[in-house]
Amino acid sequence: MRRREKFVIASILLSLGLLGVQATFLEYRYWAVFLFTAVTYLVSSWALRDDLQRYERLTIIPFPALYALSVSLFYFLLPSNIVSRILLLVFFGVGMYALYLSANIFSVAKGRTIQLLHAAQAISLIITLVTSLLLSNTIFSLKFPFFLNGLLIGLSHLPLIFTSLWSVNLESGIQKETATLSVLLTLILMQLAVILSFFPLTVWYSSLFVMSILYIGVGILQSALKGRLFSRTLTEYSLVALFIGIVFLAVVPLK
């Protein structure tokens, strides 16, 4: 069976699995979501097994599982509208297929140059930001205490950040520098989540701020790992951070 056929089959099966999760009884849905996430990990391992190295089960495979977790949790928050649910289902299937294509490129690009590598990294970053937005939205929607918000943001974003940084140089294994930078950026996001818990912001604003800081942090660290962290790059990201800060001040209600 060809790889693309595997990716299509896996994407369709997981889309049907997402539909099945929503058909479960309300009291069992969260258990169904976590079971679906585990199944996604196993199905992704099967779809990508041709060139998969042992360490890539920690660097590549968790990403599709987190994407599945984010969409399935966000699915609960949608209104009971058949159109919106179908659109999200299609979005999930297409996104999963794109993830498999990107992951396959990462897996076969080790030690050689592939023209599609930059496209795969761009697609991976976009889906990383979408996954972050949906996960953060779900976490803030549940109205947990501030310390739980920080903890859950950290647990959900650490694998996303690590995969994004690892994909820059496609290291053979888990390097200390990549792991350290991933933990540092995760701690920043955890602190941000705790701070945002004390502001009277809507769930979407809080989620967008987390996603924006993730984008800036990953962008800067990826440039550093590539050896291209020039003053112009820092200036561009600083301007983005300034804009985010202005927006934050604009949306926070003054008392």
Give a summary of the structure in a few sentences.
The chain is mostly helical and 255 residues long.
How many domain modules? Answer: 2
Report the average pLDDT across residues: 87
Largest sheet at a glance?
none
According to DSSP, the number of beta strands is: 0
* Share of residues in helices: over 70%
Low-confidence stretches: none
Order of helices and strands: HHHHHHHHHH
CA-CA gap between termini: 63 Å
Quaternary structure state of the chains depicted: single chain
Q: Give the DSSP E fraction (strand runs of 2 or more residues).
A: under 5%
Form type: globular
Number of helices: 10
Work out the radius of gyration.
18 Å
What structural class results from the helix and strand content?
mainly alpha
Key words describing this protein structure:
255 residues, mainly alpha, 2 domains, 0% strand, globular
How would you describe this protein?
The structure is a single chain. With 255 residues, the chain is mostly helical. The mean pLDDT is 87. Helices cover 79% and strands 0% of the residues. 37% of the residues are buried. The protein has helices at 3-23, 29-47, 56-59, 62-77, 82-108, 117-141, 146-169, 176-196, 203-226, 231-251. The chain has ten helices and no strands. The protein has two domains: 1-94; 109-255, no CATH class.
